[in-house]
Amino acid sequence: MLFGLGFIACTNADKSDEQAQNVASITKSENQMNNLVSIVEIPVIDFARATTFYKNVLNTVIEEVDMGGTQMGVLPNDVGTVNVVLVKGSDYIPTTDGVVIYLNAGKDLQPMIEKIEKNGGEVIVPKTEISPEMGFFALFIDTEGNKLGLHSSN
């Protein structure tokens, strides 16, 4: 899959500079990465529904790419940070079991919780304080059946 992501970066010459930078940042070499985790793939069943959900909840644009029958939605990111990609393909199955990915909700995750519920997601753990130093978290199920978390400082 990483080879394919590199291919995407090389074929985005006609995309806007911002879009090309988002996709190209996926191909950064290991020695340039600032994080232990470099790519997170969130499996989806209904690509249009999932991209609409995440666009509305995160208030962002998603670069849509088809890679040989696998649909990918690349979320914007800064160079050297974790790349988050929505993926629809035969080997991708949404789940509430396994690893939980926590999305950065900024200073306060409450507004994002409200967007999750308004856009078809389900909050399963409301805003909860971890500690004064570590901030707050919440857990939700997205429109595809994945369990994810939110984290904020307040």
TrEMBL record:
InterPro entries for the chain: Anthracycline_SecMetBiosynth, Glyas_Bleomycin-R_OHBP_Dase, Glyas_Fos-R_dOase_dom, VOC_core
PROSITE patterns in alphabetical order: VOC
Superkingdom classification of source: Bacteria
Annotated ranges, domain VOC: 35-153
Pfam family, one: Glyoxalase
Name of this protein: VOC domain-containing protein
Organism: Chryseotalea sanaruensis
Organism classification: Bacteria, Pseudomonadati, Bacteroidota, Cytophagia, Cytophagales
